[in-house]
């Protein structure tokens, strides 16, 4: 099923709401049941994978090696007997650090937009900055990654499993003339 609901919705919504992203998303590839987005001007090591089952993950690759998932915007939709929509993961496994009530939406599209797409766009604004670095770690066959800047960047560079840092934003190509 190549054209699942959230794929069509995200592509349409992102095109209409480009201003919400710090860097425009674009489709890299698709498979049956998933598609992958990149972001203009952002390192090729950073991808956003959407699956038909509801996972939305910011994934990190280095070379051809999968490194880590640095952020998730997953949504496991459920329709209530009254016809409203909610995320069953939020209901079943609430975040103890956030005392937010479970929100039910009148329509399915609003659930996806408010729960996952808008937070994804906000994350790009916070993470895809001039000072942000993609930090890679490797220790005894395990890998991990962080998008970091400022104080956090200084702190994690001191870790003994620190391997490499890569700019999040790619340098603009200069015109020769």
Describe the structure concisely for a colleague.
This protein is an alpha+beta fold and 177 residues long. It is built from four helices and ten strands.
Q: Which structural class fits the helix and strand makeup? A: alpha+beta
Quote the average pLDDT: 92
- The secondary-structure element order is HEEEEEEEHHEEHE
Percentage of β-strand residues:
25-35%
What Rg do the Cα atoms give?
18 Å
> Which spans of ≥5 residues are poorly predicted at pLDDT below 50?
none
Count of helical regions: 4
Distance between the termini: 48 Å
| DSSP, total strands | 10
- The gross shape turns out to be globular
Helix content: 10-25%
User: In this structure, how is the largest beta sheet organized?
Assistant: 5 strands, antiparallel
Strand sequence of the main sheet, in spatial order? 1-2-3-4-5
**Integer count of domains:** 2
Defining key terms:
177 residues, alpha+beta, 2 domains, 5-stranded antiparallel beta sheet, 3-stranded antiparallel beta sheet, 4 helices, 10 strands, 25% helix, 34% strand
Walkthrough of the structure:
- By secondary structure, the chain is of the alpha+beta class.
- The chain folds into 2 domains: 5-127; 133-167, no CATH class.
- 25% of the residues lie in helices and 34% in strands.
- It has a 5-stranded antiparallel beta sheet. A 3-stranded antiparallel beta sheet has the order 9-8-10, covered by helices on one side. It has a two-stranded antiparallel ribbon with strand order 6-7.
- The termini are far apart.
- The mean pLDDT is 92.
């Amino acid at each position: 099923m190549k054209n699942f609901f959230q794929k069509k919705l995200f592509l349409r919504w992102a095109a209409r709401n480009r201003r919400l992203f710090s860097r425009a998303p674009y489709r890299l590839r698709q498979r049956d049941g998933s598609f992958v987005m990149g972001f203009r001007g952002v390192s090729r090591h950073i991808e956003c994978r959407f699956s038909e089952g509801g996972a939305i993950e910011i994934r990190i690759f280095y070379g051809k090696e999968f490194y880590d998932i640095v952020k998730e915007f997953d949504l496991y939709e459920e329709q209530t007997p009254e016809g409203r929509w909610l995320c069953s993961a939020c209901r079943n496994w609430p975040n103890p650090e956030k005392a937010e009530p479970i929100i039910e939406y009148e329509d399915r599209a609003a659930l996806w937009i408010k729960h996952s797409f808008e937070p994804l766009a906000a994350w790009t604004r916070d993470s895809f900055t001039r000072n942000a670095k993609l930090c890679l770690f490797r220790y005894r066959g395990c890998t991990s990654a962080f998008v970091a800047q400022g104080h956090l960047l200084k702190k994690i560079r001191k870790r003994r499993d620190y391997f490499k840092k890569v700019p999040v934003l790619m340098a603009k190509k200069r015109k020769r003339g």
